[in-house]
Design goal:
The protein has 245 residues and is an alpha/beta fold. It contains 8 helices and 6 strands; from the N terminus they run βααβαβαβααββαα. Strands 3-4-2-1-5-6 form a 6-stranded parallel β-sheet, sandwiched between helices. Strand 3, helix 4 and strand 4 form a beta-alpha-beta unit. Helix 1 crosses helix 2. The longest helix has 24 residues. It starts with 12 loop residues before the first strand and ends with a helix. The model has no long low-confidence stretch (mean pLDDT 94).
């Protein structure tokens, strides 16, 4: 499958909604956290695959602001798993020149999670290969709301005029201000929606939905999504004829 890829049309940025951990566990008669634990292999394979293909950015939707409404036991287990996984993966990230950045309302996370995330971001800050963007305690509406508050304060403080508020100004006040918009979004588990994820950034992103549950997602599934992406014509409002010329 890898030989079929057009190396000149590999997206720079892929975002993934990692869905289906709970259903995967339930199918095996296990608790939901069992699915989350087994999803680590999918994360590792996807990061490795993205790095091998030369992607610049890979954004993973790990935990939404809405996920805080889940049972407390599951949240506690997820936070513990997050810290443990990041700790174990740091040597691999350093060896493979991978940088970690985060987006989301990080101050809502437990102190231990905040500390480990910050430590890992600092350790990998100078890595120049793949950038893994971890979206945690994140939602698109929260991000836009937060950007609006920041912009309004600048107007009130007379740092910015209302007529100066452009799409570029809004984008510059989002969590993703230093990250290009994704060219491709992948969602696993057969759900066909974007679930409050990167609402501003996905305006012209190609969407790919697969029935594969996230714990079963592997490099070949990433390749499948990219191959499908490469068959599409991205017009950005123009005609097909204009794109070809």
């Amino acid at each position: 499958m890898k030989e079929l890829l057009d190396k000149t049309k590999i997206p720079n940025h892929i975002a993934i909604i990692m869905d289906g951990n709970g259903r995967w566990a339930q199918k095996k008669g296990a608790m939901r956290i069992f699915g989350h634990k087994n999803a680590i292999t999918a994360v590792r394979e996807t990061i490795e695959g993205a790095a091998e293909l030369g992607l610049k950015y890979l954004t993973l939707y790990a935990f939404s602001t809405e996920n805080w409404s889940r049972p407390q036991d599951e949240i506690n287990a997820l936070m513990e798993l997050l810290v443990d996984t990041i700790t174990k993966e740091v040597p691999n990230m350093m060896e493979n020149n991978i940088r970690l950045v985060t987006i989301g309302h990080l101050s809502s996370l437990p102190g231990g999670c905040q500390h480990k995330l910050q430590e890992t971001k600092e350790l990998t800050a100078n890595n120049t290969g793949l950038t893994v963007v971890l979206a945690i305690s994140y939602s698109g509406r929260w991000e836009i709301q937060d950007a609006i508050k920041t912009i309004v304060k600048k107007v009130v403080d007379k740092e910015l005029k209302i007529e100066e508020i452009t799409q570029e100004v809004i984008a510059a006040n989002l969590n993703t201000k230093d990250i290009p918009d994704p060219e491709l979004l992948i969602r696993t588990s057969g759900e066909i929606r974007i679930s409050n994820f990167l609402l501003w950034q996905l305006a012209y992103t190609e969407l790919f939905f697969t029935e594969v549950l996230w714990p079963d997602f592997r490099k070949e599934h990433l390749l499948e999504a990219i191959l499908d992406y490469q068959k599409r014509e991205r017009r950005f409002g123009k005609t097909g004829a204009q794109i070809k010329t």
